[in-house]
Design a protein that fits this description.
four-stranded antiparallel beta sheet; globular; alpha+beta; Aminopeptidase
Length: 114
């Protein structure tokens, strides 16, 4: 099942909030080696987990199987603040343009059989 939740809606479900941020930590810090994001609590969070972010979460068998975050480009986002070298000139922005980030598929769901 696919859920699309605002940051506030996700925070109202503490177990799901924690599972999502632990998955992000597992993928981006432990697997991909993004050591700048390392934290002692094992949660991956950043300044873009703000009120206007939309979190899309796939749940299979009661587990978080996949995740991605959508950020509006009408306010600061990764391409304008952190990864500025990935875009020539000003990145596209507008009310109908969203930046998709933090794509993650949990290890047990990567083979497509679950």
């Amino acid at each position: 099942m696919l859920f699309s939740l605002t940051t506030q809606e996700l925070m109202e479900r503490p177990d799901l909030w924690e599972a999502v941020h632990r998955l992000r930590y597992k993928i981006f810090v432990e697997e991909m080696g993004w050591d700048d994001l390392r934290r002692p609590d094992g949660l991956e969070l950043d300044q873009f987990d703000h009120d206007e972010a939309v979190h899309q979460i796939v749940i299979r068998g009661g587990e978080v199987a996949g995740y991605q975050r959508m950020l509006p480009t009408t306010r600061p986002h990764l391409l304008t603040e952190v990864l500025t070298d990935l875009s020539e000139g000003t990145p596209p922005s507008g009310p109908n343009i969203w930046e998709l980030t933090r794509y993650a598929v949990a290890p047990g769901f990567r083979d497509g059989r679950r």
